[in-house]
Specification:
The protein is α+β, with helices and mostly antiparallel strands. It has a single domain, classed as 2,3-Dihydroxybiphenyl 1,2-Dioxygenase, domain 1 (Roll), CATH 3.10.180. The protein has two helices and eight strands, in the order βαββββαβββ. It has an eight-stranded mixed beta sheet with strand order 2-3-4-1-5-8-7-6, with helices on one face. The protein is globular.
Length: 125
Amino acid sequence: MIKNIPSGIAHVAIPTDDPELTVSFYENLGFIRLVDHGVRGMLQCQTCVIEYYPRRQEEKPAGCIDHIALTCEHLNEAYEEILAQGHQMITNGIESNEMFAPRTNRFFLFKGPNGEKIEFCKIDE
């Protein structure tokens, strides 16, 4: 077992063909816009966060959840542990994006035993 375990679910990612419909649907359930970049963003309802973005393929997958993102305080150490265990990596090392600009979102993805994508992430101040 790795020593640098995640501390919770960061978000659930849902690819969409209709971002406006997705936002409207979740706003009706009590979610508010945490991050809004038009066709992609984050919605939040208390501690639950949903990321939405345009679907990356023509054919819809069997399920509609793209990945599970887990918050991890010691991201570098966790990456080394996951790599050492031989898990199939999806990202090329630890990557980053500006989803929460001016803060930086650092993350890596790897495959779970059923092909599910698992993301470990940390938002740096």
